[in-house]
Structures are given as C-alpha cells and as structure tokens.
Queue: 4 jobs
Job 1
Amino acid sequence: MSDWVRDSEFNDSTDWVLGIDGGGTKTVCLVMDETGTIAGRGEAGPSNYQTIGLPAAGESISQAIASAVKNLPGVAIAGIGVGLAGVGRPADVQVVQGLVTGLYQESPLPICWKLHSEGVVVTHDCAIALVGGTRSASGVAIVAGTGSIAYGCNPQGESKRAGGWGYRFGDEGSGYQIAIAGLKAAARSHDGRGPKTLLPDFFLNYLNLNQLEDLIEVIYRRGWGVTEIAALSPLVDRAAAAGDAIAIQILDDAAAELALMTETVASALFTPDQAFEVVTIGGVWRSVCHLGDRLGESLRAQFPAVQVISPRHEPAYGAGLLALERLGKGVLSR
C-alpha cells in the first residue's frame, strides 16, 4: 500500500477524496490525496443496505468516514468513491447516490465539502476490488472467500461477470462450498458410504468434538450460517496438504470452477494474445496447496500473456482511485 501522509504534511488547501468499501461484515474508509497517498483510515460496521437496510448502512458509512478523518479536521473533500456489496443494478446505484448526497448535505462530519458533481462514483464491490487489486482500469478479479465471483473490465470499458449467484445455487469454488464438500466427504467416510479420508479427524480436532455425530449439534442446533461453515474450509486445505486424496479432489474441483469463471470473463473481454492481470481476492487463495498457481497454469493455456497477482491494494483504495480518475487525475493505467 502507498506510504501514509505524515501529520506535518497535511495541507488544508489540498483536494482529497474518500474511498469507501462497504460489505456485509464491515465498512472501510480511506482518505487519499491526489497522488493516491493515504492520510487516514477508518472502519465501522456492515453497510450492505440490501441486508441491513438503508439507515443502518448510512450510519456505518458515516462512522467509517468520521473515524478516517478524525485527525484531519476540516479536510477538503473533492470526491467520493463508494463500492458496496449488493449494488448490482442501476436502481441500486441511484439509492446509494442518494445516501451519499445525504452525507454531505445533512451529516455533521468535520469535513469541508468541495464535492464536484463528477467526483462522486457509486459502484459495486467487485469493481473497486479489481481497481484496488490491479491499480488499473482493466483486468479480471476472481473473488473466492465465503462466496465467489469473477468480474472484469477491458481497456474499452466493457465489463463482464460470472458467478456470484449465492450459496444456494452458486458460489462454486468458495470457502463455503469447499467446507460443505469436506463435511459431506467426512460423513460418507464415517458411514462407510465413501472412501476413507482424514477429514473426520480434522473436523473433530478443530471443533473439539468426541464423535462425528456431534457435528449435527454444532451446525444445526447452534444455527451455523454460511460464514461459520465457510470458516471450516482451511481444514480441507490442510488435509489436502497432508496428502488426503479426497481433500485434494475437493480442491481440484474448486480450482477448476474458479478457473472456469475467470476464463469465462476473460474470454468475453480479451483476445488470447492480450496481456492482462488477474487478481486473486479472498481467503481461499491463501491455500497452502497453492490454488493461485493452479489458476495461472490453467489460464496460460488460453491466455499466454496473463499474469496472476495478489492484490496491490485493498478495495477501499480502489474506490478512492475511481474518484480521483473521475476528477481527471489520471491515476489508473489502462
């Protein structure tokens, strides 16, 4: 990430932008100058208005901004970039634009608002993840965390997405689906309906259970949701690293699904001879079994010049870069 501005370097005459990343778990706000240097950072609660409602989302965003500017009283904000989970349709963009308008017209934040009309950017979380991850206006982001989705944009401004259908009939290759496949394999092995695997022992040890049947109490009676179940996916990764054939197959299947998503997006946006970057985002890519390497091998068969990278910056930074780009600062490569 870029170096931070020191307190002694803060200049009230500078135009600054806010980069905001709002998800289902937390909201992050960065204060950035015209070069992309960070002066402040704040966090607050979730701001996916589709799940928590518009007033609560607005409160989280306001709190994140207040935290980010607490050491920069009177900072002159010329632009805002906002990327929120759940903003997938034009109607959603209009709703969030109204929310942003309320921030600078009604909210008592310690900010000198110098917003230009063109300096407000509202988009979805995948777009800011791509821009932050690549520091570029084009490329592909393949997100594999609790859920999964691929999103890309090419130099002509055309975009494409694949996946992102949620855990009930999508999210292939995600932490949730890896964990579910592991739990199913463990149950089948325990019953004798499937091949032997190390997975039952991994689950028992991690959850401190006496017998596999205790999983019913943990997952069903305690009301575990998608997030809690997805958190078990690293156990499948560890079992695969220990040589367990069933766990290895589960990860192979996940890697194939993630590669398919990425290839689908890339094929719609880039020609085989084009050079572009694919940024891997989310906890699944921290696999000790090097899923990112497998993705790169698969993609290079179709796109020889592709580069698979880890994120250069966090999504909130991408939101700030989009605001700077809209202000004509030209901070993004093409």
Job 2
Amino acid sequence: MLGPVLLAAARSDSIRRVVSAAPVTRPVVDRFVAGERLDQAMETVRSLTGRGLEVTLDHLGEDVTDRTEALRARDAYLALAEALREAGLGARAEMSVKLSAFGQALPGGDDIAYEGVLRVVEAAAEADTTVTLDMEDHTTVDSTLAILAKLRERFPATGAVLQSYLYRTEDDCRALAGEGSRVRLVKGAYKEPASVALQDKHEVDRAYVRCLRILMAGEGYPMIGSHDPRMVAIARELARRAGRKPDEYEFQMLYGIRTAEQERLAAAGHRMRVYVPYGTDWYGYFMRRLAERPANLAFFLRSLATRG
C-alpha cells in the first residue's frame, strides 16, 4: 500500500527537501540515474552500447512553471542531440521527452511544448536518431497525442508511450498500430483515480497483454517497456506468432533495474534498449521508481538503515 503514498510524495516539495537533504540519498539515486551532467550520461551511453545494448536518454525534469524553464529543458536536449551526433551514436541512442518539461501546462502550453519539442526532433534527425514522447498523468494524454500527430507529419519515426492501466489505452493502441508508428507500452507509474485507470495489479497486467496483442498484430514497431518476466515471455511469443523478426520490435528496461536480464536478452539476439535518465531534477523520477517495485523501496530503506 506504500505505492500510492510514494507517488503522492513524488510531487510534494516538502518531502522533496527532506529526501534530497538525506546523506544516504545520493548513493542510492546513482543506482537509477546516470549522473547529473551530460558528459556523465554520455559515458554511460558508451558503456551500455559497448555491451550490445541500445539506449534512450531522458534529461530529467517535468511540470515546469515558467517559460524560462521550458527553454532550459529544450536547450538541454539540443545539447544532448549534438553530443550524440558528434559521438556517432545516433543509431544506438535515442531521446525520451516529457512535454510537461517543455511547458505543456503553461497558458498556451500545447503550442509552447510543440515549438520546443519540434526543435529537438529536428536536431535528433540531424543526429540520425529520433525522439519518443513520454506519457505522464491522464490529464496530458490528449495533448501529448495531438502533438505527436503533428510531429509525425514531418518526422514519422517520432514515438509515443501508452500506459496499460488507463481504460482508454486499448483504443489508443489501435489508433497507433499503423505502419511506421513506434509505441512503447508500459503499465503506468502515476497515481491515477479509479475513474480513469485500473487499480488492481492483475487487471493492469491483463490490460497490458491485450494492448500487446494489438500492437504486435499491427504494422507499427512495438517497444515492450516492462521488467516483468511474464510480460517479456508473452511478448516474445506474440512476436513469434505475428511473424516478427528480431529487428521489428524491442524490449526496454530502466537503467539500474534487472541489468543481468537486459544483457541476457541482448545476447540472445533481441533489441534491448535501456532507459537512461540524467540531470539534477531527479526527485520525481526516483520516487516513482521506489513506488513501482517493493524491491526498490527495500533497497533504499536498507541503505538508510546501514548509513544510519
């Protein structure tokens, strides 16, 4: 029952100050976050790609409150795209973007976010890579998918994330299962009301499988965002039934979680992409990782006890 509490804490400024100030926090955060600077993130990219893995990079930040912050987020991604271009890593590393970091919630936010992310998508194309739009809470879904549709007019490889715990997601999967579409399917990591999202874990799992079936049977490119061994096995079987080749779908897992399984899948010939976050605004991301899996929370609490 701690999951909802931690998800609520992810947006609490007072709890943010306490957690950020705790001496033990930084070493634990380092398990899930690849540093605060771009050069640290690029070092991680080189290490992962050198081991046969692929990468998607997330410059951490969300829920910005003014235009200056939105421009700062845009510029961080432009610097990242340039670093990937200079390193020749565009074929192995893409970028993941949260539109709330680009001003989506500001007055006129749809236009502000679109203008900012368009610059990033253009820079990504110059670096021979692409961008996936992360999905946030349910109030942003329509806006995010509308911006996705506009971006795909010029950059059809732009991807999106769908969350199986939302009631609407099966319909969204059908809408995005067409040729050229790239969809990362996840279970969902935000605290959502029962009016819009499934609350029972088993029901979320079943919804995930239904969505996977739609995506695997479609003409797009499914990206299986899950650490659940059952979902990985089901995805492999659905891909086999659909006659998909290994380069026609991929698995995605978070940096620092199930590392051995990531390398096993890559060694078995699967495309395995690691979601690598970096930056100073790590708090919300970190709290959601604790909320998702009891093992993550236990790891943090053991560290607190040890340091204490």
Job 3
Amino acid sequence: MTEWDVKKLRILRTLRDRGTVTATAEALLMTPSAVSQQLTNLAKQLGVDLLEAQGRRVRLTDAAHLVLRHAEAVFAQLERAEAELTGYLRGEAGEVRVAAFSTAVPALVVPAVRLLRAGDRPGPDVRVREAEAAQAYELLTAGEVDLALSLAAHAPTARDPRFSLFPLLADPLDVALPAGHPLAGAPGLRLADLAADRWIFGGSGPWSEITTAACEAAGFVPEQAHSAAGWTAILALVEAGMGVALVPRMAARERREGVVMRVLEADRPRRHVVAALRHGAESGPAVARVLAALTETARSFS
C-alpha cells in the first residue's frame, strides 16, 4: 500500500497555495532545500512525479493536484479528530484563538465572550488577535488561529475544501455627513445625491473596495479627498467638514457631535461578515460554543 506522509502532504499543499519553494519555506519555517528534499521523498513514496520545471520555478503536476484533492479529506478528518480529542481532554473549556478585524472585536467578539462567561458552564478561554479581514485565511491555514471573522468579499469560494464558512450578519453601511452639510436633514437621502461630494476612505484594502463598489452601484465613482483607515480619523475628518464617508453600523457607535449618520434606505449598501474555520474543526466542543455565541451576538446586533 502507498505510504501517505501527512507532514509532506502539508508541505505540498503549502507550495500549491504559496506558489514558490522559497515562499513555502518561509511559511513553514524551513529551508528551501529541506522543502525540496521532503517533496522529492514524497514523490518517491507515492511513485508519481509531483513537480515539473517551469522556467526557474516549479509547478504542480496533474498527479500532485489529484493527491491534494484526496489529502484535503485527510486534513479535514484530522481536524475533526483533534477537535474531538481536545474536547475529551479539556471538556468545553479549552482555548479558542480568534482572529477578527478591528470593528468586529468590540461589536461581536467581546459581547460573545461576555455571553460565554455569563453561562452556567465554564466557557472556553478565548484568545483574540486583531487582523485584517483578508489575513484571516492565512492565519487559519498556518494554524495560528482556530476561528476567524472576515468579510465575505475576501472569503474563498464555498468549494474550497480547506475552510468551512458560516455567515453571521449583513452589516448596513450608513453615510456620515458633517452636521452642517446641506443634505444632513434631507428626506430619502440616496448615495447618488452625494456624487459631487469629496469622499474619505482608505487608499487600499477591503474598505476602499467596499466604498467604491457601493458608490459605483449607485452610478458614480467617488472622488477621494482624503485617505484614512481608522474610524476615529475618518469621523474626525467628516466632523471638520472635509468630506463624507460610508461607515459600517458596527463602527458607528463611535459617535461625534459634529457628525450626522444617515441611513440609506433606498440603496441599502451592506458588508457581509462571516466566521471561518478549518474544515472539520467545527465539531470541536470549545470552537462550537464560541461560534454559537458569535452567531447569537450577531443575531441580536442585527
């Protein structure tokens, strides 16, 4: 029977995800020569060629992709086994490492932790790591976190066998206007009414993409007057009359007297928040309890 070495299979999967031997070595804290040697040994064990030269780089063969399709089921089963073993050894009060983008920490993670602490049974020890929405899947793949909150716009497809995705909420986007703006009190405000205004949003990243996509759906390209990523800075610029901005309702709790928040009922722009786990890990008791608390928190929030 062919020998399947899980450690070497993980190296092959990382090479597929990272693209180069050097990037794979950096991700796994190995040397490039060690990566190459491990993959050579795996090819000998399986009796097939896994890599082929493509210029100065290498690419995975069709046989390698076939091997990885089956290996994903092995990885998921190992995640389930580890989750069940952790539940057996620690009960439901194990440690769960959670990565979340900045606004999700106070709006979802902290209330979920409070909910767990208020229960009759001891809750899991939740360790929080703030991370950009797009970074969540790198952290999950590397095993640095157990659960991640991200935005659906940055989620892999539902067919990606590495992850299980759980929609949590559709977070409405409101528009922040200076208190003295001519449309601050106008009825039935729409995004298109602000097409000629100066806009404030980040220079890159998910929030820039969400803002521009919402405005383009309303029929215009926003003129970016200022670039800022933090909500404190964005709302301060709006309060000073330097522009307008879309603000997720999860972040709008940081109120300023000189800022008027308007709900865009006609446009209804939203960003969708998801929880992501390594496939198979959802069967772990501790992770399942944290996911349930996040789901309940998200339901009450919306």
Job 4
Amino acid sequence: MAEAAAALGQFDFAGDDHVVPFQVEGLDVRGRAVQLGPMLDAILERHHYPAPVARLLAEVVVLTVLLGTSLKFDGKFTVQTKGDGPVDLLVADFSTPENVRAYARFDQALLNKAIESGETEPEQLLGKGVLAFTIDQGKFSQPYQGIVALDGTTLEEIAGVYFRQSEQIPTRVRLAAAELFDRDDAGKPRHRWRAGGLVAQFLPEAPERMRQPDLHGGDGDTGNRPHGEDDAWVEARSLVETIDADELTDPLVGTERLLFRLFHERGVRVYEPRAVFDRCSCSRDKIKGVLKGFSAEEIEASQEDGEIAVTCEFCSTTYRFEPAELQPAE
C-alpha cells in the first residue's frame, strides 16, 4: 500500500514513539525522524541504569528504530556495540513491524571512576571496539552484518561511516537523549527519559549525483566542501546540522514541527507515522526449548532451591522451571 503524504496541519501530529517518514523533493532527500518518550522510559527505568549508561543506550535505541523501520521485509535489525570502555556492551533490536528491546552491560567500578574524572562522553564510555549492524530475514536466509570501528567519535559519526561503507548513500544522522524532571498530575516530582533522532539520505534520480566526499587529505580535498559533492546535498546536510539536541527531545516541538522548521522553504512532505513499542521477544516456550538442550549435569548445576530460574536480560522477566519439566519424554 502506498504511503499517503500530507501537508503540516492536515492531520494529528504523530507524537511520541512514532517514526515519521519524510521527503524533501527540492533537495532529493528522504528520511525518518522520531521522538521517543514512554516506550524508551520503560526500557531504561526497568533496569535503573545510571544516567550516563541510560543516555548511551537511549541513543542506540533511537538509531535502531530509525533504521529498523526502513526494513521492507519481515525480520530483525540489531545494533550492538562491543568496546573496552566502562560500558562494554550495548544492544538494541527492532523486530518488524514495531517491536523494540534493548540492554546495556557496564562495569560499575570503571563507570564510577569515569564519572569521578568527568570522562562521561559517549566515546569515552564505549572505548575502542566495534559497532555492528545486523539484518536477519529469518531462517531461510543468511544474516547480513556491517561492522564499523568505535574509534573515539560519536555514534552519529560512526553511523555515517556505516552508510558510507555499506550503502554508499550520502547520509546524515542526528541523535540526542535527555532527562526530564517535572511533576505528575498529582503534583509529585517525576523523572522521565526522552530521546529523538533524524536520518536524512540523498537519493537523487541520477545515481551519478550521489558522489561521496573525498577522504580528508585526498586529491579532491577542498576543505569543508569536498570536490564533486552535490549542491542539494550540501544544503540538506547543512540544515540537518543546525538541529540542537534540545529540539530533538523537546516534547513541545514535535517531530513534524521540527521537520517544518528545517525544510519548509524546500517543501517538506511527511508520511503516515509508524508506532513502535517496548516488546520483548522472549517467551517461556523459547527458554524451555533452550534448557531442554542442557545435559543432566548442566540441569543439576543450574538448580537453586529445587528450581531453575532464568531472567531475560532485556525485559527482566523471570521464568521458573521445575527440573522435571526439562526431562526428555520417555
């Protein structure tokens, strides 16, 4: 079914936890933008992550949602970092058409040391390592994985490198996360997490216009505007780079208003929003199937107080099993 476009004001705004596809015909740009609120807050508060860890994971969730909602098939899109910093693992996955889950692992002692020394920028917390993007279309196809280095730059910049290497499409990504402190309807203090992001891609009809910038220092290096880069993409990228982090997370701005601010002179179109939800793919049957593959010795070693308890790292749901349930049928 074709997506229906509408001018700003002709329909209700998407609101939180809805991805808004958009197109700027005058600049040959397509993209998606999102603000995450209750869905993200549920994921982060479930684990009571320290603020620097929660902020990092929030950015990964936004990136995963922006890219995962572009899938044109049933499957799963996963973003995962592995590094040598205090936050050694971040993972978020998007299962079509709308389900998101995420998890972070960190070393508390190293994190405390980083906080004490003021080294809490994302690149400092992640350290050196890799960022992997995995697309899985199911059991009848091989997963595709793209890997880029965690090299001390931001997640925004690393995502840009991924697109340059894998899709060779000029792309600009913006990500932001923020804590909100306000009061609920009863007047009690309240703490919430919000995040937002935008991905813009240059997709002209003429493929030769999609020239990627020359590497810094190369023969075509002309400073801030690499030789051969299309004027439309230079303009679009420059507009995207004017976005403040606060604009991406401000609940009073809204995704459509932000897009209008950026691109109204060029005629931005927005399409039907896609909702995303905090839903884990774990289940009692799945975990039971894994445990049934254990040996008798492993089943014995896994017991505590006569039962086996397994807690999902993503959603924190605990499943309990009696050893007799895991014995093979006679």
